[in-house]
Design the sequence.
DNA sequence: TGGGTTGTTCGTAC
DNA sequence: CGTACGAACAACCC
């Protein structure tokens, strides 16, 4: 379920399992490559090690020793699995790397919206993808500056990857729920102090969710994510969760404590 | 069975 | 140029 917190957890996972081991084989499953051929990717990786990784928004970049960075985008259903035994091999593999210790790293993606590429360096990638500052790394002043210039609906702005990157449908709902703000509020109507509050809540939600390993079941009791269902009772007040469409996406909020 | 789904991108309209 | 909307992508899940 890949938005910023999930990718942050994938980064930790890659760092803990897959760095500094020689890659001995690369296998391709479902076609997820863009701007790189199988041959290029294969030649870039075999005989090399991963040295470090970086997260930019919902993208994970992994540096190949003496070479470029592999870029992973997880779409709606992408995931990673590090495994050794055949019976642990996951389904829906898009890319499979074998290491010299007998383990494998699989990039899985049942719905095939994931993308794998290569890029020279992270900053280049950010420019090419037209990504705004990362939601977790941006500082408060810059956030306020950017949002003061924005128009349109608050939820759309939070989800717009070129405004800030990393937040998608699920976490924008959570941030607005915790900030007591309506998803359809117009950004230009927010005061500077409201933008500062929004920033603080955004940091709090993202870091909490990363701390919890992006496991919904571990999230605080007053989060909407585990209660993201029309008609369920609000975990923060005595309201009821409503469902609307914003930016074409299903949006859940509490009309009692999230006012426009 | 059909509708819904955590993401991105495109065309179109304003 | 920035924003809004719908459709498309693919396949699983209930």
Sequence:
């Amino acid at each position: 379920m890949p938005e910023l917190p999930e990718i942050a957890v994938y980064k930790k996972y890659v760092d803990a399992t897959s760095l500094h081991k020689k890659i001995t084989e690369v296998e391709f499953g479902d076609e997820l490559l863009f701007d790189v051929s199988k041959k290029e990717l294969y030649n870039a990786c075999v005989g090399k090690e991963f040295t470090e990784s970086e997260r930019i928004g919902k993208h994970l970049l992994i540096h190949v020793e003496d070479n470029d960075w592999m870029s992973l985008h997880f779409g709606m259903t992408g995931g990673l699995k590090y495994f050794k035994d055949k019976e642990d091999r996951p389904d829906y593999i898009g890319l499979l790397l074998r290491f010299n210790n007998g383990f494998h790293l699989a990039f899985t993606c049942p719905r095939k919206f994931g993308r794998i590429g290569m890029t020279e360096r992270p900053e280049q990638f950010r420019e090419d993808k037209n990504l705004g500052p990362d939601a977790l790394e941006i500082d408060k002043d810059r956030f306020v500056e950017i949002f003061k210039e924005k128009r349109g609906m608050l939820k759309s702005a939070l989800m717009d990857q070129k405004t800030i990157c990393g937040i998608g449908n699920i976490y924008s709902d959570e941030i607005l729920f915790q900030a007591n703000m309506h998803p359809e509020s117009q950004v230009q109507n927010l005061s500077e102090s409201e933008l500062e509050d929004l920033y603080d809540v955004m940091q709090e939600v993202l870091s909490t969710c990363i701390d919890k390993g992006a496991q919904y079941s571990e999230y605080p009791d007053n989060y909407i994510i585990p209660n993201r269902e029309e008609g369920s009772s609000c975990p923060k007040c005595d309201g009821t969760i409503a469902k609307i469409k914003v930016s074409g996406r299903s949006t859940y909020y509490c009309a009692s404590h999230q006012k426009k």
Notes: Chain A has a mean pLDDT of 95. The helical segments of chain A are 4-17, 38-45, 122-128, 140-148, 154-159, 169-179, 192-211.
